[in-house]
Sequence to fold (158 residues):
Amino acid sequence: KGSPRYLPKYETEVEVYRKDSRKLPIGDPELDWEETVYLNLIIHQFDYTLTLAICTRTSPKQLQVLRRHSQKVYASPSRRRMDTKGEVEEMTYPHVCFMVDNFNEVFCDIMVRDGEMVCVELVASDRSGHIQAVIFLGSIRYDALKRVYDARESMSSK
Fold:
């Protein structure tokens, strides 16, 4: 109980069965129980924060953050399309997705201009806040975004 891993307020009763047990719950025999346990731990035992920043490169190895916004996001084994409005969810199991349902409202003041880039960081934290890890970090330059935007605009005008 003196160990830093002991978190009594997060203890949950978990039933574990051997694969060949007669008590095994009825279900799909192809279900990977070990993978399911890991997926549930990822989804339910961590807090996730998404940070979107507009940056400029000040030197080959340095970035300057011009604007930034962070928001709590939730892990899910499903997703909704971002390019259309709708209620249809697509299962992505065993992949985990992180969605921002109110993306337009949250990031409406984040504008990217020529010479800037969009940087995205996803951080996972344990519930106590003692351990954090960056699980995704990426960036895309304005000119690459502009090419994609222009290509989509020309496709929709045909």
User: Anything to note?
Assistant: The radius of gyration is 21 Å.
